[in-house]
Amino acid sequence: MMNTTQSLAGTAEPARSALDCLLRPRSIAIVGASPQFAKVNGRPLKHLIEKGYTGRIYPVNPKYPEIAGLACYPDVVALPEAPDLAIVALPARDVEACIAALGRRGVAAAVIFSSGFGEMGAEGKQIEQSLRACADAHGVLICGPNCLGFVNAFDNVYATFSQYADGDTGAGPVAFVTQSGAFGTAIAALVRQRGLGLGYFINTGNEAGVTFSDLMLAVIEDPRIRVAAGYMEGMRDGPGLVRLAQRCAELGKPLVLTKVGRMAAGVRAAASHTGSLAVEDDVFDAVLRQHGVLRARNEEQMLDMLEALCSDRVPQGGGLGIVTQSGGAGVMMADRAEELGLEVPPLAPQTQVALAKVMPAFGAAGNPVDVTGQFVANPDLLLESVVTLLADPQVHVGIVWLQLMAAHVDLLVRIFCQIRDRTDKPFIICWVAAPPEAVRRLRAEGMVVFGAGERAVEAAAALVRHRQTLRVAAEQRAERAALAAAVERVAAETRGNSFCDGVQSTVQATGWLHAAGVPMAPVTLVRHGDEAVAAWRTAGGPVVLKIESPDITHKTEIGGVLLKLNDEAAVRQGFATLMQRAAVARPEAQLDGVIVQPMAAGQLELVIGVQRDPGFGMVLMVGLGGVLVEVLKDVVFRQAPFSEAEGLRMLDELRMRALLDGVRGQPAVDRGALAALLSRLSVWAAAMAPWLDELDLNPVLVGPTGPVGVDCVMVFRGQKAG
After folding, report:
1. Which CATH code, of 3.40.50.2300, 1.10.760.10, 3.30.1490.20, 1.10.10.10, is assigned to 522-598?
2. Are 76 and 29 in contact (CB under 8 A)?
3. What would you report as the CA-atom Rg of the chain, rounded to the nearest whole angstrom?
4. What is each CA distance from 487 to 326, 511, 512, 709, in whole angstroms?
5. What is the pLDDT of residues 260-269, one digit of tens each?
6. Which of 212, 220, 449, 521 is most buried, most CB within 10 Å of its CB?
7. DSSP 3-state assignment of 468?
8. Pick from 594, 508, 521: which is nearest to 555 by CA?
9. Model-level pTM greater than 0.70?
10. Helix (H, G, I), strand (E, B) or coil at 247
11. Domain named Rhodanese: which ranges (predicted)?
């Protein structure tokens, strides 16, 4: 609902969005306000007054004629105007009637502190659904219920009872949105300790109205915000989260998320390997990475990333240069850098010559550069070493490691300021057991300071990944229209078709995939021994026989596959053997016959699959291992559709990707052909989203002539064309 306000001069202003009224209100009503400022319903008024909110404030409570010198109104109807925002601090039983009254009064938005809704179980969920319907019917945008509210520090809006508002809340470049009230408050307090400053602090509560993504999308548009951070406990809106990530990339603003439940095995019973491997958090992590989101393991890593990303310097590549007092610390950081995909490059000859001129004879002028403790006697040693290292064309971000040095704070602060002024490349200071005064002064100078080497390396990796995100996001924007058009072409071809639920026949599934550009080995369904022999003769060489049944999707588990049959007797006997084995192992199964297929060759086995994820829709998986895929668990996921370039990035994320380059004399596989297969399959899967539930290609054999799928399980569920 749009809410038209009038300026003080009486001139009509353009209508404002409900989200703008929520986050940047010009007037606020506090329904259930209390003169006792220590209470939940008294704290918002306290903060608004003490923090200098300049808009109009309307306490609402029939018990009081005035509160803190402000007129207090008996009910919403009595308000002298329709405020932009209402803070609702009432018992749960009174909230829905309040929202209806606010809507009738023309209030655009409300933040609801009250608990007793969906978090209380089935009955609470019903109450919350009724509240949502009421808010929608009356045109009130709600934040909450069961939330701490929010802070807009830029405009001194304190629609919250959070303890975070009790301290200094100076506005800064970080927007923080959290699904947890208490833990989110703790993170906000830690941000404050780092001196970073939150421009926005928002707790979403139960998200009966605006969601995590809605609120973050709104605040990242503020030009004063440079970095977005979020804490999530669950994901209610996958498409919204993807839109948020894409918009952050368009704006060039990093998005850092921490989500709990990393090890939750949310695995549903599935007919394919793909379904059993698609642990909810694995898919979440992969889709975030696909769209450039930086994921932090915990609150401390989030803060480290934020501190680094708030810097206005962006690395132009992935080369890390290290200067250290300790050779051991340099080795440790170099090891961690390699684990994270950073390069610690050899220094250019001219850099080594320049370093040799300033280094002590017992120092090390490689990368890492070990300046020893000699720089205390000769400050220019540290200064010139770091500046020279950062000037190397293969070094894009630096780390300077030192320890203790409590007696030399003034000297070191001066040196680091000189380094900052003589280079335009980002660098991170790792000062172990640093004097607190040193950390405070360096951060005041806009420098990034950590107390442990691995933390510094991980922050440097976040800087590099953000730079890569901007490049990849630009490619993805250019590809988006073409992918959408490709999906629409495939979807148009399927309109008017009717599909049956359940496991699809191998012949039909193979035909659909082949038409979509996915290389598939030819298959023939036979129902007796003579047909099997005829199919073998047509193949002209060795064949594989596989039992065909919609009830037997893992054929090898019942001995339902026979390989390398190449004479009439073997083929005829093979057919009988498979039918007998299936009848014994699964007497209730529907047996449609046997698939005859020419033997395919390949030096490497992959598994490629698709599943319908409840949050992100169609998700594609590629992995190494064939029948061992569930043991090796070397798999990568992506949201469909995606380009061939994204397919190449998927292959690069496999742990055993070196196998693709050939080992023990085997030739390298054609990565381009594999990426093309992945992209085409992702387009087809996106177009088939109304019907496709699961797809498993296992194995996909990769040989000199490219990849070919030799076994397929395809499952449709629940919808028909129309």
Report:
1. 3.30.1490.20
2. yes
3. 31
4. 56, 18, 15, 22
5. 876 544 334 3
6. 212
7. helix
8. 594
9. yes
10. helix
11. 499-545
